[in-house]
Amino acid sequence: MPDEYELVLLAALLHDVGKFWQRTGEQGAHQQLGGRFIHQYIPPQWQGCAGIISKHHDVSAYLSEGYNPLKIVITADWLSSGERKNLNNEESANVVNTPLISVFPEIRKSQSKNRDISPSEYCYPLKKLEIRYDVLFPVPKEQYPKRQLSHEYKELWSEFVREVSKIKEVSEFEVYFNTMYYILQKYTWCIPSAVWKSRPDISLFNHLTTTCAIAACLRDIELDLTYCTALYRYVSKKELTDAEKESLDDERFLLIGGDVCGIQRFIYSVVSKGAAKALRGRSLYIQLLSETIAKHVLLRLNLPITNLLYCGGGHFLILAPHSAAPKLEEIEKWIAEKLLKIHKGELYVVLGSVGLSSSDLLSKRFGSRWHELSERIAWQKRQKFSSIMNEEHYDELFGATEEGGIKDICSVCGSEAALTPDEDDPSLKKCAFCRSLEHLAKQVAEKRYMLEIPTPTDVNGAPEDSWEHTLGMFGMRYVFVDEVGTLPEGAHVYTINSTAMPTGLCSCASAGFRFLLNTGLKEMSNLAKGSQGMKKWGVLRGDVDDLGVILSEGLGDDQSISRISTMSSMMSLYFSGWVHVICESFSKENSEGDLYGIYSGGDDLFIVGSWSALPKAAGKIYDDFRAFTCNNPDITLSCGITIAPTEKYPVSRAASLAKESLDRAKQSPGKNSICFLRPMSWEVFSGGVAQLRDRLLELIKSESIDSTVSRSLLQRLYAICRMFEDERSRGGTLAAKHDDRYGRWRWMLAYVISRARSGGKKDELLEDVKALVQSNIEHAIVAVRWVEFLTRKEEVR
């Protein structure tokens, strides 16, 4: 007999799947169609959830004694939506014509709340999830095909049930549930959850998974009539008694946040020679470590994958029952002890939590509570290792970690562990752990699948000084392969950067997919050699501006858990999936240099590359991000670029300088800027600065004009730009730009341009240069330096 908890989870996960079927033209109420789907496509042992699904709008049962499994699903459905609604209405007849609308145009920061412009509507195509522009990027509603979508729904439904049918023989619940989770993501990510609303901007996938997450938290709670009546009266827009309000204010849920601390130092403290594998391996390790710890917390709390609401950039978010609060301290202590033993204080995980009530979900305060949790975790990070700050761990925390003296140390991490000469460069000596991370980078670059295999935390069989052993201590082993063979029970197979899930798996293994920035392994020397002009590599860093404000305030009164989840998952698709496509396209074209993706996920990115490719890559990432977020002026991205002065320049220093550049960009008014040589708005960067760069390049290198000008023109223009800056320091920007008393730079510009004239097209270009320098004098020095770098002839040093 199946566990009642299993039936509740599956019913919650599939409770609205009937809407999908209904929109193909199938007749019947969606809850009845959902019941039919269960009987037709789900393994017999779990078909008992059909009764729950077919009655999940049965208010009379909800307000009666008993029926607790049904009450859990109905409660979770209402709390996930966070909407007051007419419970008796089915969706409108126009549902088949209504695509999923992007949530991004709705976002407003506090300073622009009173903006009069109504948000434009952008629609997603009704296609299964793939990392392609025509799939991921929404289009303005007026450009969306004006036709019924029933044909697209039928095609999508046909593929969906075909894939669901392939797992009908699975007998292990967790295997079945996890595979169904990814099948639902693949086919329902683009389907609106509800169309009776004015803006159908919540995906069916996010509504189903958040409903399931809430249901999982209610498993041990007997939902009494007072609570059920209060919730029913609230969603029915009726007045509540004080007792009913108190029942909804009771904190039944716990929002748990995890943060891996020490990431920057851990990833970027590598030497430049041979740094490529080290950087990528360390970045991947942090990703796997945070996911493994998050899943370990889920396991300890007996929660399904749906309750991992977010995981990226070393952060994770879990929805748990409030009864989990006492267990968190024990879990955090256990994790801290493991990491202290392995990393000797270099990496540490903070676990924080805030209570959540039904009122928080119904009044759509989920984003605000998430922000509150983030602030609490930021405060806890100042108390590193506080969970194990006791006599037992005193020597580990405050004592010497190594012997000291004159000894060889690891060329990558600086430890005194046993060292082995590097295979490619014997002058570099590396510890076993660093070598294992480099092997990880190589594996991921070459393989199609990632196997995730549960393993006992005390015995995992991997060499002690390896990333495999570390993750095994948290109960997970990872293997990267090209072909999926025989799998152990409970294994999960991820296809990397494709939603085409592996076929022919045994019934003991689940399947899914994941997106990774994966450009293959590249050395700094080759990146430098591939640059145009001067032969140097550089670093690009970027992240979304004011993401905390967007999460806590951006959706105003519409912060339901489903809507926040939809926004978060869409953002992750861009950084985890689309940035990989951008970097891959640069590697194939290789016209302006190459890119080496280190990390992109959540809301930030870190890319190493040929210096000449980085500005163009930054512009492409920004332009696509703006299109992806529907050109909402309140959702912006800032980037910082630094150029390493030599091939062997320390990566840690280059990473730090790129972070400083990013911080300088974010100090610009309104942020939404790039710092390349100096900070400027994206409008200036892609407008006047780019135009001036192109005109100067044409003057110096083009074969289409009678005679090019020498690079000495750049030196003269550079002197003019510095002259302007001197005048600005004396009289201010306005005076330097417009007052003749500070206008010596303008006279010098006119003189330099006139001396360079010789007739024909060349003179037209020179006039363009003169006009562009005058109109962009504050940032013209960037274009001049840019062209000087692009036209410099040198070898790698």
Give a verbal description of the structure.
The chain is α+β, with helices and mostly antiparallel strands. The protein has 4 domains: 4-249, no CATH class; 251-409, Alpha-Beta Plaits (2-Layer Sandwich), CATH 3.30.70; 517-676, 2-Layer Sandwich (Alpha-Beta Plaits); 682-797. 47% of the residues lie in helices and 13% in strands. It contains 31 helices and 18 strands. The strands form 5 sheets. It has a 6-stranded mixed sheet with strand order 14-15-13-16-17-18, sandwiched between helices. A 4-stranded antiparallel sheet has the order 4-5-3-6, with helices on both faces. The chain has a 4-stranded mixed sheet with strand order 10-9-11-12. Helix 29 packs antiparallel against helix 30 (761-775). The longest helix has 29 residues, at 561-589. The protein is globular. GO terms for molecular function: ATP binding; endonuclease activity; exonuclease activity; transferase activity. Its cofactor is a divalent metal cation.
